[in-house]
């Protein structure tokens, strides 16, 4: 087998040159694409009974990639959005392969024909104010872990930050001494933004920094795990789910809701919308690249739609239904 078909040099040039130097991809993007390709290679090695280092590019053909994507959904129970995110990473790599190694163009082109799978767009779930308050109050304030958990939950609820933004915040990103406190969030695609900090969150953050002995100007992580390392996405999810378990006895409805760090973001967006904040302001607050993404919250607010019907004077009385008398129209109407 020719050397140009080996995976190692193509992977190295992809991550070191294409993603890092040419695309200037963020560390989060590099990590996400690395994990997707690692999963694909492990799947291929297991399926073909080869060591990962012995795999050639032609081993990663279209059929194998499709089998990998099917396993993500069927065995790992990944949602379609996650499946598509993995496919995006694989397609990015094979775009590089097609450009860097013309001899492999045929293999790459067949993989690139795999389409993105259409997903059902579900209703955006959110929590009521009482449910958010119950989650925030759930951690035990008598322990350092409980105080950290409450501050983290409060941060998610008051800022609407993505989990990666919340865990990535350092002490020097906070401006707590201003008359109106605020925080710098480093968003997706290097889209940084500044959002206001509520008074209760400012007090909790000040107390947490004091407890951990961190000065406001230090570039140190605010939220850390048991080993004093920056909190991970897994750790953040665990905090939220633990709080949900403790809050269910007081708020039983939480048991039937998809509780995750992201639901705080949805809940804040809905609260802002219901309070009369315009979509463009909510878009800027949440860091959405397009207002269409923010618009889904308006589509999810049934109560606002119901109020709209009342203001429009729509009574709900049924009018006379059109009944076609033409045979062709009657046929189409019956289908």
Ordered list of secondary-structure elements with their pairings:
Blueprint: H1 7-22, H2 27-48, H3 62-74, H4 80-100, H5 105-112, H6 129-137, H7 144-159, H8 163-167, E1 174-175, E2 182-186, E3 192-196, H9 199-212, H10 233-247, H11 262-274, H12 279-286, H13 291-300, H14 302-312, H15 327-334
Antiparallel strand pairs: 1-2, 2-3
Helix pairs in contact: 1-4, 2-4, 4-5, 6-7, 6-10, 7-9, 7-11, 12-13
End-to-end C-alpha gap: 59 Å
Look at the helices and sheets and give the structural class: mainly alpha
CATH superfamily of the largest domain: Intergrase catalytic core
The helix-strand sequence is HHHHHHHHEEEHHHHHHH
Which oligomeric form is depicted?
Answer: single chain
The tally of structural domains comes to 2
The strand line-up of the biggest sheet is 1-2-3
Please mark out the parts with pLDDT under 50 across 5 or more consecutive residues, or reply none.
none
Gross morphology = globular
What average pLDDT do the residues reach? 88
Total number of β-strand segments?
A: 3
| Radius of gyration from the alpha-carbon trace, in angstroms | 25 Å
Helical content (DSSP H or I, runs of 4+): 55-70%
Output the CATH topology of the largest domain. hpI Integrase, Chain A
Count of individual helical segments: 15
Summarize the structure.
By secondary structure, the protein is mainly α. The protein has helices at residues 7-22, 27-48, 62-74, 80-100, 105-112, 129-137, 144-159, 163-167, 199-212, 233-247, 262-274, 279-286, 291-300, 302-312, 327-334; strands at residues 174-175, 182-186, 192-196.
